[in-house]
Amino acid sequence: MGLVVALLASLVGASAAASPARAARVEPIRLALIEGLSGSFGNAGEAVFRNLVWAAERINARGGVRLPDGARPLEVLRFDSKGTPEEALAMLRAAVDQRIAFVLQGNSSATAAALVDAINKHNEREPGRRVLFLNYAAVDPVLTNEKCSFWHFRFDAHADMRLAALIDVLAEDRSVGKVYLIGQDYSFGQHVVRKSRELLTQRRPEMQIVGEELHPLGRVKDFLPYVAKIKASGAQAVVTGNWGNDLTLLVKAAREAGLEARFYTFYGNALGVPAALGEAGVGKVLAVAEWHPNVGTPSSDAFYLAFRQRFPQPADDYLHMRMQAMMEMLAQAMERAGSAEPLAVARALEGARLDAKPLQGVHQGLMRAADHQFIQPLYVSVMQRAGSAGVRFDNEGSGYGFRTVRFLPAAATQPPARCQMRRP
């Protein structure tokens, strides 16, 4: 046995001597992307992956995360949840088994809620193997209110923040007297329909809500029956939080049916929607987001062009600024903490401002310590032909882009915090 051990040791030593680069390899800081990377919303998951990879590449290109014991690169690993909370929990267990301490997820508030609960329990049970959850798109307000967690940070504006901006624009449109509400039948979609009714009743009590519809998440292949109801109702505007293929197929059906209503959306500016609508969407599809390609500043234009250079295929065009902010702020927090340990990183994220040089002049924001909700500007934009005033860039090579109709600075988007956070 001693001879075998000695032989193995000599082989390892010889291998290290022959391959100094391998011996000197720096252990990366691994990030687990738990997302639907296949199935009905696989395209949305792949768009997320491209954004996170690009952000990691930029951080690594400038030396990685600078820690006291040396700089370390970021590595994004894929864990396919197949779009279900149950599979996401299985992927969380797989990531924990691999001792990955940072989990990234966003496409589905139901999945995010399940992950928050599981991570809370895991961190209490195993404080030596804590996990930090960074959320870039799950926008149900409860996640930073009633279900807020010290171990969860949200980098997207939540649904009420987005909806307030969108409904402000809708309420000022005096040509609209009838509105139809439609959404996906899960926590986020239900909340958007309910909150839309509340806000419209407050701001335009004379406006008629002529229909409400909740449909199965990711299972409807033909939205023509839903659009027929909208058309029969006489609605001049539709409010929807739909995303991914549920939004693309909805607007395709609207075009085919000749529906003239304006669409007030959370995600109408990407993932196939402009191409699906074509000319029928000009002046009729509005979206709300923390940024869009036609913000119009030189810094923003340059940043977007760099993304398009990295991903030149039109189908790969979907730059999420909030994901870039999340990755930059994570790297900054690790450097301020001098550690990649989740508790230290979480404390460094609380109250942090986005001040990374790559995003200066492009985006800004503050991670509110009270509830771990990122406070950032919002834009409401409307679909127009590329090349028209204010629309330098199109979406996904469609020939159509979006022009700003309302800008809200970060200070104007802050909701009250209702979080009662338990801190370790």
TrEMBL record:
The keyword Electron transport does not apply. Coiled coil: none annotated. Residues 28-384 form the Leucine-binding protein domain. SUPFAM superfamilies: Periplasmic binding protein-like I. Keywords: Signal. Residues 1-23 form the signal peptide. CDD domains: PBP1_SBP-like (cd06329). It comes from the Bacteria. The keyword Signal applies. Belongs to the leucine-binding protein family. This is Branched-chain amino acid ABC transporter substrate-binding protein. It comes from Caldimonas aquatica.
